[in-house]
Design goal:
Strand 1 (about 1-15) and strand 2 form a beta hairpin. By secondary structure, the protein is an alpha/beta fold. About 35% of the residues lie in helices and about 25% in strands. The strands form two sheets. It has a six-stranded mixed beta sheet, with helices on both faces. Strands 2-1-4-5 form a four-stranded antiparallel beta sheet, covered by helices on one side. Helix 3 (about 100-110) packs parallel to helix 5 (about 140-155) and helix 5 packs parallel to helix 6. The structure holds adenosine-5'-diphosphate (2 copies). The site of one adenosine-5'-diphosphate has 11 residues, from strand 2 and helix 1. Keywords: ATP-binding, Nucleotide-binding, Transport. This is ABC transporter ATP-binding protein.
């Protein structure tokens, strides 16, 4: 059974339709890339799957449960406990250190201080950030900052990691390194990943790619698979 599903999802913003019957099923542990032209509805689909936007019509299911029908409070709780997020930028607090940023979601989730920092520091070497724990995140390179953002998203052990253009601000070599790390650590943790990207080389790190076009989801054409 799918871990995450969009069934015939429609969502408009005023007169602008963003999704028009989007269908998608993501398996548990699957690493899925979502591509498509700018304005095709990728971000809106990700926000709907993550319970941030509710569809105007259709269903979103997580682990068999309709999440679009939950109260706002219960959806917020689900996002906090089961989902992790990585965006293009902006999720780190620049004045705080790398360790502080990674420990933050654990501290907010009532993990004790010592345990939170122990778990945060265990992620540093794993993401090639050894020795940077005491550095303020505002002083990091773009690639380092995105690796901290990945650690911060994965440290509470979410079931699903949602990433919206996580490498959008990086050069292509750094993008591939960061995406490889995201995929290998998520796979080691058994975390399901849904990553929106414009970059075919970033998508190539995923196990499967779908295309969003005019608010609908389709498989890649042969031409697109060939690149
Ligand atoms: P993509 O991520 O593929 O670029 P989006 O999901 O961001 O596409 O947008 C799909 C369409 O919906 C676009 O026409 C966009 O302008 C519109 N849209 C998305 N979010 C909003 C919003 N919050 N308010 C108004 N229009 C929006
Ligand atoms: P992406 O790089 O994912 O395509 P966008 O630049 O399309 O991102 O959108 C960034 C954010 O702004 C998203 O949260 C999206 O919902 C929102 N947004 C997109 N288009 C509009 C719009 N026309 N009006 C208001 N908000 C929008």
């Amino acid at each position: 059974r799918s871990l995450l599903e969009a069934r015939d999802v429609h969502r408009s913003f005023g007169q602008t339709p963003a999704l028009r019957g989007a269908q998608l099923a993501v398996g548990g542990g699957e690493i899925l890339a979502v591509m498509g032209p700018s304005g095709s509805g990728k971000s809106t689909l990700l926000h709907c799957l993550a319970g941030i936007y509710t569809p105007d019509q259709g269903e979103i299911r997580f682990d068999g449960q309709r999440i679009d029908e939950l109260s706002d409070a219960r959806r917020t709780e689900l996002r906090r406990t089961a989902f992790g997020f990585v965006f293009q930028f902006g999720q780190l607090i620049p004045e705080l250190t790398v360790s502080d940023n990674i420990a933050m979601p654990l501290l907010l989730g009532d993990v004790r201080r010592k345990e939170a920092y122990r778990r945060a520091d265990a992620w540093l070497d794993r993401l090639g950030l050894g020795g940077l724990g005491g550095r303020r995140t505002g002083e990091l390179s773009g690639g380092q900052a995105q690796r901290v953002a990945i650690a911060r998203a994965l440290v509470p052990q979410p079931k699903v990691l949602f990433a919206d253009e996580p490498t959008g601000s990086l050069d292509s070599l750094t993008s591939e390194t960061v995406m490889d790390l995201l995929v290998s650590t998520a796979r080691a943790e058994g975390t399901t990943v849904v990553v929106v990207t414009h970059d075919a080389r970033v998508a190539a790190c995923a196990e499967r790619t779908v295309m969003v076009r005019d608010g609908k989801v389709s498989a890649l054409t042969e031409y697109e698979v060939a690149g």
